[in-house]
Design goal:
Blueprint lengths: L4 H18 L3 E7 L7 E5 L15 H6 L8 E8 L5 E10 L5 E10 L7 H7 L11 H19 L9 H13 L8 H8 L4 H14 L1
Antiparallel strand pairs: 1-2, 1-5, 3-4, 4-5
C-alpha cells in the first residue's frame, strides 16, 4: 500500500538536521520503498553523489540487506563511491510503519576526501564497519520478508495478466540491477507474481545478460 508524503515528513526533517549538523559534504536521502522504481522523495546536499528525486535505490540489497552488518534495521559506515570513484561513507536505516511493514529508508552519504587534512577525524570517519555473520535465523527471515515487500511494490503497478514478454523482461531487468535475485527464493517469488515459471525468469536473465 502506498503511503502519503506526510508519513515521511519527520524523516525529511531529520535528514535536514543531519545535513545541517555535518555540513555540505553530508548528503541525506529519504526513500519511499512503496514506489521502488522512483523511490527517492527527498535529497539534501545531493551534489555529493548526485541523487535526485524520482531516482531509484542503488545499494539497499547488496550493501545493506545482504551485509553481515545488517542488524536492528540499519547498517552504519559501509563504503560506496561517487561518480568520480571517490570514497563515500554511507549508512542506511529502514523506515517501518506502525504495523512493522518496511515503507522507506533513510540514507546518509558522507564524502571523505575533504577530511583528509584532519587526521584524527579521518581515522574515525575512514573506519568502515566490520562484517559479521548473521546472528539469527530471524534476521535472514527479515531480509527475505523485506525483499518480498519490495518485489510486491515493484509489480503492483502492472496489470500482470496483460503484460507482454518485453515488459516482463524490463521488470526482471530492473530487479536484477537492484540485486533482488541475490535474495534466496526471489526467483520463485517473481515467477509467481508474473504468472510464469522460474525457468522463464532464468531465460529472461540470460537474454538480459546477452543484451548487455
Amino acid at each position: 500500500m502506498l503511503v502519503s508524503i506526510e508519513f515521511f515528513n519527520p524523516y525529511i526533517t531529520a535528514a535536514k538536521m543531519i545535513a545541517k549538523t555535518f555540513g555540505r559534504n553530508c548528503e541525506v536521502v529519504v526513500h519511499d520503498l512503496t514506489t521502488p522504481q522512483n523511490s527517492v522523495i527527498f535529497a539534501v546536499n545531493n551534489h555529493v553523489t548526485g541523487r535526485k528525486v524520482g531516482q531509484s535505490f542503488d545499494h539497499l540489497i547488496r550493501e545493506v540487506l545482504l551485509s553481515g552488518q545488517f542488524n536492528e534495521d540499519f547498517v552504519a559506515g559501509y563504503e560506496t563511491s561517487d561518480h568520480n570513484k571517490e570514497s563515500i561513507k554511507s549508512s542506511t536505516s529502514l523506515i517501518r510503519d506502525g504495523s512493522g511493514k518496511v515503507k522507506g529508508a533513510l540514507c546518509i552519504n558522507y564524502r571523505l576526501n575533504s577530511l583528509s587534512h584532519v587526521q584524527e577525524f579521518v581515522e574515525d570517519m575512514m573506519t568502515f564497519g566490520e562484517e559479521t555473520k548473521p546472528t539469527a535465523e530471524v534476521q535472514r527471515d527479515n531480509v527475505v520478508e523485506i525483499a518480498d515487500e519490495i518485489i510486491d511494490s515493484i509489480i503492483k503497478g502492472y496489470d500482470v495478466e496483460h503484460l507482454k514478454r518485453k515488459e516482463k523482461i524490463q521488470i526482471v531487468k530492473f530487479m536484477d540491477e537492484k540485486g533482488i535475485f541475490l535474495i534466496k527464493g526471489a526467483i520463485d517469488k517473481v515467477a509467481e507474481k508474473l504468472n510464469t515459471s522460474r525457468v522463464t525468469i532464468y531465460s529472461y536473465l540470460d537474454e538480459i545478460k546477452k543484451g548487455e
